[in-house]
Design brief:
It contains one helix and 27 strands. The chain has 348 residues and is mainly beta. It has a four-stranded antiparallel β-sheet, with no helix packed on it. Strands 5-6-7-8 form a four-stranded antiparallel β-sheet, with no helix packed on it. The protein has a four-stranded antiparallel β-sheet with strand order 18-19-20-21, with no helix packed on it.
């Protein structure tokens, strides 16, 4: 082979090897950069603000780290996640890379209670709920001292937070939820015999109920009304409560004084059908003697002229059977009774 041709081939070979080596180096650098970005790189789009000085900085590998803007320093190692700032306190929950949970101050970014709990909920009014080793929930203070023992059954769908000095808790019992209430000092102010404990209204009053009836409590969980009612509902925008007993609904002041002795949700006219004298068709006639009133879905009869109650609202539905008789359906069943316009059950 000619010497000049060999020289050209050797030059091409060397250039090719050089390009190949350079390509491999560039590829390696790209891999290193990609690896670093995935495992150590930041993801600024997922950053979250906890307070004026504290930011939760996110990374591409789905970890986070807390940054204090005023000091320009990180206050934690990398964590799995940090919860949002609570409404009624300054301590929120974080989860470390091992899955354990602790508490961090949202104003400083400093860890207050190290990660040690399998489950925890953010602080509210000085207390935070944690899951004990026995599988029940208790409450700790900012010094990590147990204030309410781990005696509350755990419900995964529930947030354990205090509102106005009390925490309402619940657990699923066979076919329904049971509720209880605790004070911030650890007292159980209501036992587990209730199926409803409402959040406090603006004025602090709340309704509590179970299968036996309903009661009204004030902001300190003191019982207000002396009687037990079938149903209670705090009147929105009014200083009082709607109270139903024996299918009669009244509006009461919070001290029990009757303000409106008879309250209805709705009224409607009754009509019956008669045959048209000119053919086989029927026409509807409005009844002028009685009408229907309703209370929480139940219906009763009242005098259409005077408004006097004829029957309590104890029927599921009422309709005219004839110009002189009405059909009243009993509860949720298909059974009915026939009443005259005085509310008396007719026996044939």
């Amino acid at each position: 082979m000619d010497t000049s041709i060999k020289s050209v081939l050797n030059a091409i070979w060397k250039v090719g090897l050089g390009l190949l080596g350079a390509g491999a180096a560039v590829f390696s650098i790209i891999l290193v950069i990609a690896f670093y970005k995935v495992h150590y790189g930041r993801n600024e789009w997922r950053d979250r603000t906890l307070s004026a000085n504290v930011v939760v900085r996110a990374y591409e590998n789905s970890t986070v780290r807390i940054w204090n803007k005023s000091t320009g320093k990180y206050t934690t190692r990398k964590l799995r996640w940090v919860s949002g700032a609570p409404e009624r306190d300054s301590l929120t929950v974080f989860c470390d890379k091992k899955g354990k949970r602790g508490y961090v101050n949202v104003n400083t970014g400093e860890i207050v209670i190290p990660a040690q709990y399998s489950k925890a909920w953010h602080f509210s009014e000085g207390l935070g709920a944690v899951l004990g080793d026995n599988g029940n929930v208790g409450f700790i203070n900012s010094g990590n001292q147990l204030v309410i023992g781990c005696e509350i059954p755990y419900d995964k769908s529930f947030d354990y937070v205090f509102k106005d000095g009390f925490c309402v808790v619940k657990f699923w019992d066979s076919d329904r939820y049971r509720y209880s209430a605790y004070a911030a000092d650890g007292r159980q102010v209501l036992g587990w015999c209730y199926t409803q404990i409402d959040d406090p209204a603006i004025n602090g009053y709340r309704v509590v109920a179970n299968e036996d009836g309903s009661w009204l409590f004030d902001k300190n969980f003191n019982e207000v009304l002396p009687d037990t009612y079938d149903r209670l509902e705090i009147a929105e925008g009014r200083d009082g409560v709607y109270a139903t007993k024996g299918h009669i609904k009244q509006f009461l002041a919070f001290n029990g004084t009757v303000i409106e002795p008879f309250v209805v949700d709705d009224t409607r006219r009754l009509e019956y059908q008669v045959m048209n004298g000119e053919g086989d068709d029927f026409v509807s006639i409005l009844d002028n003697d009685v009408m229907v009133y309703s209370v929480y879905g139940w219906e009763g009869l009242m005098d259409a002229r005077t408004g006097k109650i004829i029957t309590p609202a104890c029927y599921w539905s009422i309709s005219m059977a004839s110009p002189d008789l009405v059909t009243a359906r009993l509860g949720y069943s298909d059974e009915s009774v026939i009443l005259d316009k005085k509310g008396r059950i007719c026996c044939f």
